[in-house]
Amino acid sequence: MNAVWKDIQGDEGVKALLREYCLTGRVPHALLFAGEAGAGKTRMALEFFKALNCQEHAAEACGRCPSCVKADSGSHPDIHVVRPEEGKRWIHVEKVRETIQEATLRPFEARTRCILVEPAEALNVQSANALLKTLEEPPGNTVIVLVSHRPSLILPTVASRCRTLRFHGAKQPPRVQEEEGGEAPSSLYGLVDEEVRRDVIGLLFGADPALLARKYSEQADVDLLDDVLTVSEAIARDVLVSRTAPGRVLNRELLDMGLGRCGLERVEEILEVVSAIRRGVNENVNVRVGATELFARISRLSGLAGG
Ligand SMILES: [Zn+2]
Fold it and tell me: Which of 22, 44, 106, 166 has its CA 20 to 30 A from that of 215?
């Protein structure tokens, strides 16, 4: 049998999150796979594409259908790989333009086309600029995956437009192992800064939204802010799954809060602010105002839950 998720070692958190995207259909348009060379990022991107497009299974690749087979053999017409030419350091701007042009057409066969940029640090100012608008408003049915071995070298304008997933390869980050109960690590813990997670969760236990907004807007750290948004989305998701599948709640602290009693519109509100902030970060919109609003909405959840 060909590769399926379970054959990829390590990075359970990333895998779980990508599966979740496939299952819910809420796939971010631009993802940044960051981690050391050899951590399996490109392989994971391929597996993600297969899972999104498998003709047999949802959220899982069968490895046998025409879509899976073509993807494995490198002949799938809807996987576009953008990389530097042989012996060159930078990705040529023309290559980016060409790929974007093709992506304005409907995918040939796939439900979701994938544009893979590797490594993303090979985008120079010119080729990065050519990609920016597409990162912001990608054509329908397209996910752009940037693979980076050295994410600190990526132009901030590019990185800030992507959802970053951090890879650790077969070696797991310590905080995943520290998790109690010996259960499968939640998809979050391997990805976000634990302090950020605790801070945002704290809002449901009485922390001051304005104070926290000041903390994260003053640091002006794109990675941290991205973590804040990821945790906020996870809380929204937890509210949803707590009704039907409490076992899948990621933030275990929230289990006994009765979050299932919150209305769906509260979840929508949170997700709206999150995406507004994501758009705003790129235009230097006031992050503090956005974060204050977001944190206020999250802290309101606990009142609604009556917990
Ligand atoms: Zn398949």
Answer: 166
2 CA to centre of ligand 1 in angstroms? 10
Please tell me the distance between residue 72's alpha carbon and the centre of ligand 1 in angstroms: 10
- Give, as one character, the DSSP assignment of residue 160: T
Q: Which bin fits 220, alpha (ψ -120 to 50), beta or left (φ > 0)?
A: left
- What pTM did the predictor assign? 0.57
* pLDDT tens per residue across span 209-238: 999 998 888 777 777 888 898 889 888 888
- With the CA atoms of 77, 82, 86 and 88 taken in that order, what torsion angle do they form, in degrees rounded to the nearest 10? 170
| Distance from residue 192's CA to the centre of ligand 1 (Å) | 31
Judge contact between 65 and 55, C-beta under 8 A: yes
Residue 181: CB atoms within 10 Å: 6
Contact 129, 100 (CB under 8 A): no
